[in-house]
Amino acid sequence: MIEPTKEYLVDVERKKWVLRHYTKGSDVLDAEVFAEGLSEDVRIVTGQGEASGLDEARAALERLRAAGVLAMRHDIQALWEPEPGVVVVEATVTYSLDVGALSPLPVVTIFRWRGAEVSDVRVYMDSTPLLQAATARRTFKTP
User: Fold this and answer.
1) 10-33 pLDDT tens trace
2) What is the DSSP string of 78-140?
3) Residue 143: its pLDDT value, please?
4) Cα–Cα distance, 123 to 106 (Å, whole number)
5) Considering only CA atoms, which of 67, 69, 72 is closest in space to residue 139?
C-alpha cells in the first residue's frame, strides 16, 4: 500500500486505523485484524450485500478467501474527513487470485465512527471483474 497522494484534514488516529485496517487486515485477509476497531454491531455494505456484526464481517472476508482471493492491495489516492467521525478513502484495489491478478479496480470506502469504533462501512466499487473471475474459477476448477 502507498501513502495517500492527497490528504485533507484527517484525524491522525483515524488515519492510522485506516492504514492498519488495509495493510494488516483486509489486504492480507486476516479476519481478526480486519475486525479490530469495528463495533460489535458494525454494518458493512457493498454491492454484493450487507454484513451485520463482527461475526458476519469476519465471514465475509473468509468468503473472499474461499472464492480464490489470496490477497489485496489498496493504493490510496486520497483520504479525507469531510465531517468529524467520517473518513472517505479513494483508492485502487488489486486482487491477487489463485488464477492470477486482476487489473486495479477503483474503489471508494466510507468509514463512520461511533465513539472509538467504526460502526458503518460502505464500499463503492464495480466488482464485476472479481465476480467473473470467481465464477470462472468455480466453472473450470478440476476436482
Assistant:
1) 788 999 999 999 999 989 999 999
2) EEEEEETTEEEEEEEEEEEETTEEPPPEEEEEEEEEETTEEEEEEEE---HHHHHHHHHHHHH
3) 39
4) 11
5) 67
Q: Give the pLDDT band of residue 3 (cuts 50, 70, 90).
A: low
d(CA 22, CA 73): 8
Coil, strand, or helix at residue 48?
coil
SS3 141: coil
Q: From CA 16, how far away is CA 137, in angstroms rounded?
A: 35
pLDDT score at 5: 57
- Cβ count within 10 A of residue 4: 20
Q: Which three cell numbers stand for residue 102?
A: 486482476
Is residue 36 within 8 A of residue 26, CB to CB? The reply is no
- Single-letter amino acid code for the residue at 23: T
As a whole number of angstroms, the distance between CA 126 and CA 129 comes to 8
What cell numbers appear for 75 in the block?
493504493
Q: Model pTM?
A: 0.86
> Radius of gyration over alpha carbons of the chain, in Å?
15
